[in-house]
Amino acid sequence: SVSNLKFLNAEAKDYVEGDFLGANEAGLQMFSMRHIYLNLKWGKNALLLGQTNHPVYIDEVSPNTIAFAAGLPYYFLNRAPQIRYTRKINDQFSVTAAAVVFSLHNTVGPVNSQTTAMMPDMQVQLKYGANSPLFIGLNAGYKLLKPRQTDASGTMIDKTVGSYNVSAFAKATTKAGYTFKLWGIYGENLTMLLFPGGYGKLLKDNASGDYDYSNIRTFSSWADFETPILANRWRAGIFAAYQKNLGSSKELDLTKDASGNFSYGFF
Question: What pLDDT does 136 receive?
């Protein structure tokens, strides 16, 4: 981490973080880049450029579990290249807008489906209570994917599938030092967050091959309670969570090929 820099009349901070856990099963014990970004601040405005946690990840509200996974699979894991702009309205209230491009943590399906759709994952976030005992906020986002560029006959098509996510979060701290955190998300095709879901072809659709899609919806939430430091420097806490695959709002074509894979979808 390098701070106290000046760049374009802004206070600049560089941050780089990696580990040797590998990016996937094939690359275990190999170097993996976690964060690498430049954060620029001009008074109440800030611009982050680079790879870091997805905006849905809230630094102020994250599970304080001992395990490295930090609440998985009920919380999520996603680090991606992004441009993130934050405007601090006052000491308590801030607004953030971000454009995210998936890299290592991608959605199911063709890896280039976001690139061919030519639209980043757009996220907007509101936070209130940065300097108060009660911290709350909302986040909403929308992404667009284009799994196919041609239909069954080889004709170029422009069929895309859009999906959204909405999350809410809160953190309360008492004068005695007790902390309670709450987070929840509802959305479509949240597989880039390592949640169950995906998308597939509608069962009843155009036989020409230019078919429409429907998303799988998911809900996940958790609560984390922690005490202040007790005797002998111990701290006690409890983490509880719930997650549900809500399926699709429309009936999907679940045809499988000889290998057992879905022929018209990604789940």
Answer: 98
